[in-house]
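User: Here's a chain of 214 residues. Predict its fold as tokens.
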Amino acid sequence: MEKAKYIAVEGPIGVGKTSLTECLAREFKGRTMTEEFEENPFLAGFYSDKKKYAFQTQIFFLLSRYQQQKSLGQQELFSTTVISDYLFAKDRIFAYLNLGEDELALYEQIFRFLDVTIPKPDLVIYLQASTEVLKERIRRRNKPYEQNISEVYIEDLADAYNKYFFYYNDSPLLVVNTTDIDFVESSADLSDLVREIRSIKAGIHHYIPLGSRS
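Assistant: Prediction complete.
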């Protein structure tokens, strides 16, 4: 994917999306587009009382992500590489996981209206990790509003991501299990991943870490 101008990095909470996004922006001499979680006034309430705050949290994120994505004008995508730490379409993963039936019906109407106007990435990188690794990474980054996330929710979210990307075909997809690799601390891991990204043409690919190849 040597000529990719828009790359989206995805995965569950704590998997390392933003860290990898920043690394790839340096490698590809592009700019980052990152989610601004702290601006969502409902997020802390959601992790304390999911049922009460799920719809408000979801709609705020949906509209915020839409505004960011619309800023990706065609002129910019022709002139520079953009690395995003989220995929707009993944918003539905959280909606189907957290919303009730009536809320979901309303959400779907809004999402479908917005989604058709959003540019699709040239490549999506889906990051996976074990539940234990996700929990440890969440603990280490120590964001106050994340400390109430239950292990069950992390497991459900990881499972929802796996199911979503099993059927994903809107863009070329690279699946990367990060349980035993660290793109921030290991320059070798990062360089090997960059080589893999540059070689991708189309379809679905699974990254095999350098040390695992025979």
